[in-house]
Automatic annotation (TrEMBL):
Its EC number is 1.11.1.-. One of its GO terms (biological process) is response to reactive oxygen species. It catalyses: 2 Fe(II)-[cytochrome c] + H2O2 + 2 H(+) = 2 Fe(III)-[cytochrome c] + 2 H2O. Destroys radicals which are normally produced within the cells and which are toxic to biological systems. GO terms for cellular component: mitochondrial intermembrane space; mitochondrial matrix. Keywords: Heme, Iron, Membrane, Metal-binding, Mitochondrion, Oxidoreductase, Peroxidase, Transit peptide, Transmembrane, Transmembrane helix. One of its GO terms (molecular function) is cytochrome-c peroxidase activity. This is Peroxidase. Gene3D superfamilies: 1.10.520.10, Peroxidase, domain 2 (1.10.420.10). The lineage of its organism: Eukaryota, Fungi, Dikarya, Ascomycota, Pezizomycotina. The chain crosses the membrane at residues 57-75.
Length: 374
């Protein structure tokens, strides 16, 4: 049902120009129908989510994961400890296979829409943001940061302004970690992002395991993630440091088709699109087709659409259409969703693998998971 409602929403959003009143009505109708489907087909899960926060937990996990990062996981006989989950109650070395990772994927997918009152009814967007932010700390010059480490478990990185609210994603994944203790936090967080993108009707994202968890000594300094209040120079400074070019910057920005900002977290407020739980190229269409004005409110500078006044764009979003080199890619992706999906898959895969020494940690090739909504 959830898949059918998203398919309906995607088709409805493409039927008319973004600025028309009919489109807004259709989008709102699609959202209402999608919510109705959710109410009638909520997915269940085997156990209640943990009530404790994952932030700052398990300083000793880094030592354990030195073994885990190699793709081989050590276990000792016991009851419900590291042996639980798909590994079974066995001694010695456990080498997870594709089907083990697919089970983790499925467990995440089954819980994405378990709480209708969380944002727009899905944890998908916040899981994408977690995977994005733990990867986007990479510095190609020093080789530090990136998805290899899951250092956002620790303060001060968990308290960086750009990571506000991500405790929700980390806590969401904690019961999955308990069910499948053989997977590192680093691999789990990225797998959560891959699952979320695919389950929200996005493109296929190849996945390679082999990340090692690290301790708080590997936390990256604040300021490595984009500051939404800045412009095009800032975007290039941030993304060039990771090793991305202008086209890749725009493709990655397409993730703003998902989710929303919260005034209690980032200070900004509102969704970017009318379909915040469906991956589309609508973000690019709206940037070009809508008229955006500075919102009059007590918060930081952001923009609102003149048609419905229910959507928002950040200064970094508007930089994509004010900069000629960026805008050409916005125009291409607005016209061709298939091209956006292809480029987005490529660049997100690159992002999620920043800082991971795969040659040293695993011999496994990319995995392609089957979505549960297929």
């Amino acid at each position: 049902m959830a898949s059918a409602s998203r398919t309906f929403a995607r088709a409805a959003f493409k039927s008319t120009p973004a600025t028309s009143a009919l489109t807004i009505s259709t989008r709102n109708t699609g959202f209402t129908i999608r919510q109705t489907f959710r109410q009638q087909s909520r997915r269940g899960y085997a156990s209640e989510p943990t009530k404790s926060s994952s932030s700052g937990l398990y300083i000793s996990v880094g030592a354990l994961a030195v073994a885990g990062g190699a793709g081989y996981y050590f276990f000792s006989q016991g009851n419900g400890s590291l042996l639980s989950g798909s590994a079974g109650e066995t001694k010695g070395i456990f080498t997870p296979k594709f089907e083990d990772y697919q089970k983790v994927y499925n467990a995440i997918a089954e819980r994405l829409e378990e709480k209708e009152d969380y944002d727009d009814g899905s944890y998908g967007p916040v899981l994408v943001r977690l995977a994005w932010h733990c990867s986007g700390t990479y510095d190609k010059e020093t080789g530090t940061g990136g998805s290899n480490g899951a250092t956002m478990r620790f303060y001060p990185e968990s308290g960086h302004g750009a990571n506000a609210g991500l405790v929700a994603a980390r806590d969401f994944l904690e019961p999955i970690k308990q069910k499948f203790p053989w997977i590192t936090y680093s691999d789990l967080w990225i797998l959560g992002g891959v699952c979320a993108i695919q389950e929200m009707q996005g493109p296929t994202i190849p996945y390679r395991p082999g990340r090692m968890d690290k301790d708080m000594g590997a936390c990256t300094p604040d300021g490595r993630l984009p500051d939404a209040k800045q412009g095009n120079k800032h975007l290039r400074d941030i993304f060039y440091r990771m090793g991305f070019n202008d086209q890749e910057i725009v493709a990655l920005s397409g993730a703003h088709a998902l989710g929303r900002c919260h005034s209690t977290r980032s200070g900004f407020e509102g969704p970017w699109t009318f379909s915040p739980t469906v991956v589309t190229n609508e973000y690019f269409k709206l940037l070009l087709d809508e008229k955006w004005t500075v919102k009059k409110w007590d918060g930081p500078k952001q923009y609102e659409d003149m048609t419905s006044k229910s959507l928002m764009m950040l200064p970094t979003d508007m930089a994509l259409v004010s900069d000629k080199a960026f805008k050409q890619w916005v125009q291409k992706y607005a016209k061709d969703e298939a091209l956006f999906f292809k480029d987005f898959s490529t660049v997100v895969t690159k992002l999620f693998e920043l800082g991971v020494p795969f040659a040293e940690t695993t011999e496994q090739g990319p995995m392609v998971f089957k979505p549960t909504t297929a």
